[in-house]
Write a structure and sequence with these properties.
Number of helices: 10
Radius of gyration: 30 Å
Mean pLDDT: 80
Shape: globular
CATH superfamily: Glycerol uptake facilitator protein
CATH class: Mainly Alpha
CATH architecture: Up-down Bundle
Strand content: under 5%
Structural class: mainly alpha
Helix content: over 70%
Low-confidence stretches: 1-10
Largest sheet: none
Number of strands: 0
Number of domains: 1
CATH topology: Glycerol uptake facilitator protein
């Protein structure tokens, strides 16, 4: 019995001695973590740290020309872009050609179109947006190129439908003013209005992507940005330079209204008019779209920092 008591008495100090060591280790660990946290918080930001991840890929799937066409959802996205752009083109033709300038009606129509198409393709419906998505690495190049083709097809279908009803009523073809008819300095005036409006549209679309979980919020923010760009373009073109609303902010629709209807006395003059309109209504606005997306990302990066 004596030997058993001595054994238990030897074991008791070991159990009590481990508790303070564990507490000491935990305290030291907590202290080290606090020091590391303070170092991270007090660490000065540099350009590399600030731009880290700025140009990173933001889409999840690794899409290529060999894999994208095997996904049946991709064809649904293309069909959504065609149908959505066709309906949007009908709305824009009504606004610019028929003189329907009720901004409230236009805004509600835009929200309805964006909500209806969003589930299919993300509701780009505009090469300005698609190019901005590709440039900011939110969309793969192959998907973006196919979206642009689908948007042009949709705008063409909308033009066919709208013009067919117009001609069926016995009306003559639309007299669409070209850039050359505006006068001296008309090209750069139109180009700068398109650049500014496209940057506004792309900026609002990029910010609306933050609210993707709420489709109505996404559509409302995007439609609000487009309406703001329309108001700015209307005020500048009509009040300041007298261009009679010579802006579109959608290269796919502009191809039907402003680019291919170019006319001239010979082939060289026609080709020059097409190139001039293509630059003002397609290339420069897409540059504005890239600016709008990067401006959104840059301001978001500053806010996070």
């Amino acid at each position: 019995m004596a030997t058993k008591k001595s054994k238990t008495s030897k074991k008791a100090p070991k159990a009590t001695s481990t508790k303070p060591k564990t507490a000491t280790k935990t305290a030291k660990k907590t202290e080290l973590e606090a020091i590391k946290t303070n170092k991270v918080e007090n660490k000065p930001t540099n350009s590399k740290g600030f731009l880290k991840g700025f140009f990173a890929r933001k889409y999840e799937e690794k899409e290529s020309i060999l894999t994208i066409f095997k996904n049946h959802k991709f064809y649904g996205s293309l069909l959504g872009e065609i149908l959505g752009t066709m309906i949007l083109a009908l709305l824009l033709f009504s606004v610019f050609l028929m003189g329907v300038h009720n901004i409230a009606t236009y805004a509600f129509a835009l929200i309805a179109i964006l909500i209806a198409v969003y589930a299919f393709s993300g509701a780009c419906l505009n090469p300005i947006i698609t190019v901005g998505m590709m440039a900011s690495r939110r969309m793969s190049v192959i998907r973006g190129v196919m979206y642009i083709i689908a948007e042009i097809v949709g705008a063409w279908l909308g033009w066919l439908i709208f013009n067919a009803f117009h001609l069926a009523g016995g009306e003559t073809a639309y007299d669409i003013p070209t850039i050359s008819a505006i006068g001296e300095g008309g090209f750069w005036t139109v180009a700068l209005i398109e650049l500014l409006g496209a940057a506004i549209v792309a900026f609002f679309f990029a910010r609306a992507l933050k609210y993707q979980r709420s489709v109505f919020t996404f559509a409302a923010v995007t439609a609000g940005g487009i309406c703001l760009a329309m108001v700015v373009g209307y005020v500048i073109s009509a009040a300041f330079v007298g261009l009679n609303n010579n802006f579109i902010y959608n290269p796919a629709v502009a191809m039907m209204m402003k680019i291919f209807p170019s006319s001239g006395d010979n082939f060289g003059e026609i080709l020059g008019g097409i190139c001039q309109a293509l630059s003002a209504y397609a290339i420069i606005p897409m540059i504005g779209g890239v600016i709008g997306f990067y401006l959104s990302d840059f301001t978001a990066k500053l806010a996070e920092d």
